[in-house]
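Notes from the 1:1 (GR / supervisor)

We went over the backlog. Supervisor wanted to see one worked example end to end before approving the batch request, so GR pasted a single chain during the call. The sequence is below; no edits were made to it. Supervisor asked that the structure be written out right there so they could see what the output format looks like.
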Amino acid sequence: MFALIISSDVDETIEKPLYQPISTSQTLVPDSENAMAMHLCEEGLTFHLSKDVPTLISNNIEDIMVDAFMTLGINDWNSLFYITHPGSRAILDGVEKKPRLDKDKMKESQYVLSEYGNFTSVYVLFILDEMRNRSIEEGRSTTGKGFDYGVFTWIWTRHYS
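Structure output shown during the call:
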């Protein structure tokens, strides 16, 4: 069971945030209009994922990260932790490939994908919890595997019905 508490005004005298948004950005990936689609029908929520999605992500992820982290002066992608909503193993490999991430950067995302499969948006909460638990077990200085900053990638579609 998960509870997600979002606060816009953290009172650190009584609250201890585990993860705190510092900066956000969003990007519309070129040529991705028909890459993903969700449909709500009698059978439930159906999802279409194009075979081109891992390539689209791999070709654009580093530019997206440069835009997101430019204001913070961060450009060493291995100095960050990663919470990546995968969709598939190929998507995780695509996120790893272009910025040449160390193989352990997607460890929590890969583990949750292998244990539970892809279950859309709630997936990221399971990864956050897995990373928090592993960080505590390993005696890390932060709940982000010892790193102060991280990347939270959530790939979404505008095509739904």
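Supervisor's comment: The two ends are 29 Å apart (CA to CA).
Batch request approved.
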